[in-house]
Amino acid sequence: MSTSTKSPTSSQLGTYLGLSAVLIGMVVLFGNLSEYFFSADTFVAIANEIPALLVMAVGMTFVLIIAGIDLSVGSVLALSAAATANAILLWHWSVLPAAALGLLVGLACGAITGSIAVVWRLPSFIVSLGMLEAVRGGAYVATDSRTQYVGDAISGLAAPWVGGVSSAFFIAVALVVVGQLVLTKTVFGRYVVGIGTNEEAMRLAGINPSPIRIAVFAATGLLAGFAGLMQSARLEAADPNAGTGIELQVIAAVVIGGTSLMGGRGSVVNTFFGVLIIAVLEAGLAQVGVSDPSKRIITGCVIVVAVIIDTLRQRRAARAH
């Protein structure tokens, strides 16, 4: 079974150090290219930008480890936020029940994606692609294709807490810790890695992978719903276009963090580094004046390079065995 379920090995420590070196190198590079980058304001802004991305990346790490993929998380973010906004604005619910509704919507979307993929034995790529469109359409219907302004009803998540950094950031970091502990210290985490490594061996061992797979997708949907709350709190609004394309950033962050697209290997802590690398890259490119299309080209190239590195790592590991 993968070493990701054991105590950190020298290889894992090497990965941590490698990702840290890349992150520090990027900070130094952009600090030299822009006189405004290396400042407290920049780092606070990055910290306040990443909570939604980080929360979804935690769930996506588990999805990729079971050799699946979920392209619908951005749409689920938007629909969950829309459900919460409707509950507050139209039905006059208080904040906690409205937020719970948004989380339940995310959970349901993830459970539906996982159930269809598992029961019908369909590629999760295709199922989640269909859900991406269907759920996005639901967000437009729920909001009448207009941004719903909820004001400061749920702005507490985005309120400055320590040094101008929002509570959402600290909650997201706490979820990273919880996710890593679940992955490395629980039976569920071992089953997740085992399914991604060799699903047939898990079946022969008497373990049914189906409910575990569905649970992983459901949890990812729940986290996407929570990301929707974070996004709404920061914008004080529910935008039906929110999260468009963010699924690519989420997958990029997880892959950059070293989680294998082939399944069986991953780390939530490494995903955190991947999110930071993506965030610093985008902030740095913006400060040095790179256009949005050029930023997308560079980000796409980073994803391709990360996938190539992962493929080479897999081949090297296969030859070693």
Question: Can you describe what's shown?
Answer:
The chain is mainly α and 321 residues long. The chain has one domain: ABC transporter involved in vitamin B12 uptake, BtuC, CATH 1.10.3470. Helices cover 73% and strands 3% of the residues. It has helices at residues 10-33, 40-49, 51-65, 73-89, 95-119, 124-143, 167-185, 187-204, 209-235, 246-256, 268-287, 292-320; strands spanning 148-149, 160-162, 165-166, 237-238. Strands 1-4 form a two-stranded antiparallel sheet. A two-stranded antiparallel ribbon has the order 2-3. Helix 10 (246-256) packs across helix 11 (268-287). The two termini are 13 Å apart. Mean pLDDT is 92; it is low at 1-8. This is Ribose transport system permease protein. The chain crosses the membrane at residues 16-38, 50-69, 75-93, 100-122, 161-183, 212-230, 242-261, 268-290, 296-312. It is found in: Cell membrane. Keywords: Cell membrane, Membrane, Transmembrane, Transmembrane helix. It is a multi-pass membrane protein.
The number of distinct helices, counting runs of at least 4 residues, comes to: 12
User: Strand count, sense and closure of the main sheet?
Assistant: 2 strands, antiparallel
The appropriate CATH architecture is Orthogonal Bundle
Low-confidence stretches: 1-8
